[in-house]
## 1
Amino acid sequence: MKVSSVTKPPGCKLIRVDAEIVDSVLVSLSVRGDFFAIPEEGFDRMEARFAGTRVEDLARRFDELAAEEGVEPYGITGEGLAFAVGAAIDGTRI
Amino acid sequence: MAHEFRLLTTGAADAAYNMGTDEAILEAVASGEALPTLRLYAWTPAAVSIGYFQGLREEVDTDACASRGIDIVRRITGGGAVFHQAEITYSIVLPETHPLAQRSILASYERLCSGVVAGLSLLGIPAEFAPINDIVSGGRKVSGNAQTRRKACILQHGTVILDLDVELMFEVLKVPAEKAKGKLIEDVKARVTSLRACLGREVPFKESEDALSRGFAEALDLAFVQKRTALAATEAQRARIIATEKFSDPAWTGKR
């Protein structure tokens, strides 16, 4: 299923997600918003590497990938991204 | 001992060239060809800049911009969409090894924003840093800032709002469907301010430029050993190339 959301999770800036999910596994994830992440290209690589992540593991995977890619995010957290994807699945809007 | 800096007051330029200039300065500082640099500038025509991670068509009414002659540019820094009209913009570039640089990005935002706070104080406007990246006066945002780190350098740029046409801003910026535009306009008027609103008078660009340059010098203990109104020749050439090949490229602007 393809899902989308626009949310402002607690402690985060505005986050927009588009996700394709099959059997609770992310096939693809697009993340956009007002947040910061340095280096920016590192976040691009993180985004591509979310494919294959189970939805319930997204927050942990975010932290793993940020560490691996050397990314310092501000205004977006793993929990915030998981919140945004959860809201997309639930059909929630801000 | 004061930190030797270059002060660039480059005046107004279009969005792509402004962003190309910031990146060319970063390259020059990174290579050691230029001193750490504070640049003060403006935008003509008016422009919308979006953050690195924003979706272009989600944030900007591109048709409205085209019909009004308003430029659109994607920054290399994150953050939100900014409408550049009546404002002064600064950029500051320094190596990560510089004594003024902070390892913590949050701490460096506060340190570098202290220059803006000091500049506003010189204009008679009490202001304070509001994490992550804002400066507020009387609880209202008067400056937004964005930082990136590349080539072992810190580039931070930000705006100080001289005057704000909120109605025009929301003609070119998209409003989430969940929020009524009228309510959002009233919200913004309550949460955002300008130098005109703070002082009850128009603040000429030159006055704000002088105040900010002095504010940065005082807050960060800078000595402007070079004061220029234009880039060095090689920098200017790089700025034009970067402006053309990157910031004017629809593929870059529309990458998200």
## 2
Amino acid sequence: MTSLVEEPPVAHARETSLLEVRKLVVEYGTGPKSARAVDGVDLAIREGEVLGLAGESGCGKTTIANAVMQILRPPARITGGSILFEGENILGRSAEQLRRYRWQNVSMVLQSAMSALNPVMRVGDQFVDAMQAHEKIDHRRALARAGELLELVGIDRRRVSAYPHQLSGGMRQRVVIAMALSLEPELIILDEPTTALDVVVQREILQQVDALKRDFGFAVLFITHDVSLLLEFADRIAIMYAGEIVETAHADRIGTNPQHPYTQGLLKSFPPIRGPLTRLTGIPGAPPDLSDPPAGCRFHPRCPHCLPEQQALYLRQTTERPRLRMVEPDHEVACHLVAEAAE
Amino acid sequence: MSSAAQLEVRSLTKRFPLGGGMRRSQIHAVDDVSFELRPGTITALVGESGSGKSTVARLLAHLYEATGGAVLFEGRDVTRVRSRRDVLHYRSQVQMIFQDPFGSLNPVKTVRHHIERPLRIHRVVPSGQVEARVHDLLRNVGLVPPEDIAAKYPHELSGGQRQRVSIARALAVEPRVVLADEPISMLDVSIRIGILNLMQRLKEEQGIAFLYVTHDLASARYVADDILVMYAGQIVERGPIEQVLSEPLHPYTRLLVAAVPDPTSKTEAKRIELRTGTPSPAVDPGEGCRFRARCPLAIDVCSQVTPQLVEPRPQHAARCHVTAPAPPD
């Protein structure tokens, strides 16, 4: 736990933060084979905002979501840090307290709607189940509420009597979103909500979330590997690499002024749909194995700016973990190169 | 131009029975699909899930039997090929790369084994030269040093490296046509471009005709020369990719282009019309345009007559009564 005891990077704390993740560490397994999937992550979501969390598979973004929902299962366990919801730490809460916290405060929509829905139960009954587990409501009223929620996401209320297999993939995902709304939580976590769907359906669903957010005023933690999607739909974006946040900024700034070489490489990995085409390069190499991450900056083996010729900088890049530091208001970057340029 | 075609697809049709008993519904998964693949050209085949694009690739790979139509390769109709020798010959010329680089490699065999096998089965080189050829192939797809990579097992490689092994294996038999079915959609974002660049280089250096099946329009634009847009089993638009994407004719293509995330414009600017879920128009379609229920331009004739592919611009065809009307007889 040595690297944990560094000083706090930059104060994220804001009076208005709905959710605050502080120096979170999540480990999988024990002993020499253990891996820190999340290693000292700070993250804050303000009321009513859409925070995009982007990164490649295995970078730890879903682990953060599962930690926030408190649904991590062994061998994963939280070994450091805290998670504050409306200022109170949810770590160490009783099962009963967590049961209320989930769904009423925070709900989650997963990538595969089919595995979130019970295939042998009518859609309406699944709403009723979820509502009755959390509040005193009779069956008839709960079913009527289910119908209203379905209409909110653009599905005919008579579909309460449909089975999941009778709905298209896009409709199923909308059912799950409606269900996530049923107890009017303050925060909804969308974990790759549209990855299994095609672009047209993806856009339909995100437009719907956008409209609902304005009506209900919930905040969204939007997790995806598709940064181009976040540039369009998120207010702020956090970029994650190998268990760490390497850059956070307003979505516009990530798009127009990315500072971390990984963010820059990620943005250059998406060819444009219009405008001039140039040859792209992506990022050489592959993300590291988290049971044995590279020393120093975890991105250094793939970084185009990590050159042995620049001896002093190279030494820092390969031995010292960079900390998040502010480069402009609301824009933080963890990179030795950026830090050096600022000095 | 048809003389230069490496592979020519004519009115290809595939139907799958749906449900049992007396209802006898059919999915018209592929319906009257015609196109050609030319040497040194990448042709993108795009469409939503269930549009039939993967079925087309599988029909061309001889993994499914066609219900109707023809696939001409070296002047022979491949859909009629039956003998093991002929199928083997065809497969040595037309190779397929799959979406899942985990599932398509044997976990208990080394990389060398995967690439040697096709070399030996199809007797591409004398056995004395197999080792050297394996190394050449690995180097060709950017897996270096080949001596080290050849000794590794699939689990020791990253997703991108595994997909490169699949590509090296496909290239071992020196194919004229490569069918790539969503080859990058399961890979990490930062390494996708590398695979697209590799396809581009192989097209240029070896004159391979590629069919690139994808749902990702932006990657298609990056790598492909021509595009085929499928909707509910039919090709609804085809042509040179830059032209099709900058001036799409078919309303479905327009919808697709508008739906692609575009960092330069905010959501508000490009709202698309919501649809409230309709059953697949590929099931017992009957007469009429299959896109009509979702189409903002639909007119009466769209529900009565199935539109044909019409070429209002050179090389650029669409299947739409409104934007590509049939010329009067």
